[in-house]
Amino acid sequence: MADNAVVDDVIRDPPRALISGSRPVIWLLVAPLVIGLAIFAVYPFIDILALSFSKSSLGRPFQKWPLLTNYLSLARDETFRATLIRTALFAIPVPLIETALGFAIALLLHMHLRGAGWIRGLVLLPLMTPPMMVATAWKLILAPSGGLLDGVLLRSGAIGQPISFLGTMPWAFLSVAIADIWQWTPFVAILSYAALQGMPEDIVEAARVDGASPSRILWHITLPMLAPTLLAILLLRVVIAFKLFDLVYGLTFGGPGFDTTVAAFQVWRTALTQFDIGLGAAQTIVFAILVSVVILPLTWLHRFSEARAG
Amino acid sequence: MSLFETMGLPNSLTRRRFLATGAAAGTAAAFSPWGAHAAPSLSGVTLNLMVIQPHVVGGRIVADGFEKATGAKVNVIAVPNDQILEKVTLDVQSGANVYDVVDYWYGLLGAFAHDGMIVDVTDRIAKEIDGGAFLQSLYDPYTLFDGKRWGLPYDGDSHVLFYNTEIFGRHGLKAPTTWDEYLTAAKTITEAEKGNGIFGAAILGRKEPFQIGCGYANRLCGFGGEFLDKSGKPLLDSDASLAAAQAFLDVAPYAFPTPLETGYEQGLPAFLSGKAAMMEFWTDLGVNAQDPKVSQVVDKWDVTQIPVGGSNTKHRASLDAGFGLAISAGSKNPDAAWELVKYGCSAPVNLAQMITPGTGIDPVYKSTLESEEYRKVAPKVQAAAQQSLNGALVWPNGAQAAKMLQGLADQLALILDKSKTPEKAMKDTQAMWVELLGG
Predict the structure, then answer these.
(1) ipTM of this complex prediction, to 2 decimal places
(2) What is the pLDDT of residue B173?
(3) Residues ≥6 apart with Cβ < 8 Å to B403
(4) Domain range for residue B302?
């Protein structure tokens, strides 16, 4: 019984239980979590933070401690500033489009194709394809010489000469966005579909009996009830979109110029092609701050919608 | 037992092509890694040879031969071109110590040595190697950093200009000797044959030093420029450098679409399928272009030296890419690893690799470059390379070279993208290099 009381204390208010509790069992209970966090979160963070204040190469970390030099260098670097803005311009609208599209697909599946498991499998196919394969496939579609899309457009007379989709702006940025939407919309669709399946049928039935139209049901019942789930999916997608790397690597390599260079790609270039680990770490810290700034409002919105949904 | 059997070089190709030529065998004997001595017995020893992906076939020739000659077991481990330093560093730092011998790009020599990832072999070379036998244009750049030697030359990469004689014939064009003639040829062909999907030139413009950097370097040496002066000061804002960048930009509209999207994997098939009339590429393309399995231009191509431009009239090559073998700092058996380095970089092995399609290996010895066997297999390439390797353009290879060359590649991409003028881009590159070199 005493142990149950301890567990109850920890569940009810973990920090307070830890601070006030003198019983070793409390510490034993949370020790695996604390150790795990220390190894996988705290240590890497401190290491990256320390690296960001140092002059470090890949093979010789912590050669010197020029402290703010890396950050001052970033502050002067117009290319990096543009990269951060570009990353946000990708990571916010693209997941929004994916969430809208994914939810629409889920709704269609829910309304018309319930139980058709093979279609759900088919929808998941882009998500199960390795990202570099996705990039290769889209590269073949979008290549200016012998590419599928240019071939179709040329034959149909829509264009007079091939368009370099991956070598000119704004096509290159749009191409990366389209490939990302193709790959990740199914992820949203399948999660939204699961949420729709879990919705209590009686509420919808009651609304129907009361004469509510399908659009009223969607706007006034379905969406408010699923809002916390959809916001959670959006939050997840935004975080993943901020970390975009493989599609850029495979499709455009950050070009033309730097026009599709996003933050994760830039950090990779700095740390693992120029071997400037100190500057790469500083870029990572600045990037993490940007992600947090964007994510925080979404998190608050998610909490608010959860509270509102009860 | 023949020298080749002593050295373990196994296949009929080697026997047929190499031993048939007494002069070549004599040359090989002179540069055998073990001289008059028998190969060391390394039975029971296992060595791991890290090679870049394009060197896998060549690496297997080294491994097979070394195994037969010494009794050791050699595993060939391939890594992507752009991950050499990363892989070796992580291997050494983690304590995994998988690699014994490393296939390094000479541009990263300074970074490898500065970070302590490869072993100083100055004394070993002084005792056992005749450095004078290597092509002198590449011996120091490939091996020397901070007054010490860190490896031996393995793949002597330089570019020559390949062109499609059939396409040139259709337009009454001759092999270009200047960058102006090159531009005229590219323009003529593209304007006439673009509708058929044929373009005047393929330009490797992908934003990597190995790719976009080579095109610029070819023009830089053509215009008589250098990356650094004798005191090590950057020369990116020189007249030759600006002319090179401008020449690179000028041909872009007539190149296989689009230069910024063209890497090896797009450029090579374009030339070998007859869709691109000209391409600057490594000399080993001369062997592959004659291989009907991969080439549709067999006997329809020729090769010439990298063109000249401006007031420069002397043809030179640029040491684009180029690799050496070194002992990894993590090797548990550096003595055996050194034997493998010596073997892999020996003249007979170099020649066997050069005349085998798909190895990606080019001459590192004067003897192999001038050998009868190489002349038979790649006569056109041999002539062009022989003429242009003297006084070749050397890329930076110091501790900061990776960052400098990536910065250059970025700025060149901005030129092709028309985001920057050649003047602005080269000025910015110059400033970056000066800062990196502490100037």
Answers:
(1) 0.73
(2) 97
(3) A274, A275, A276, B436
(4) 159-318+400-436
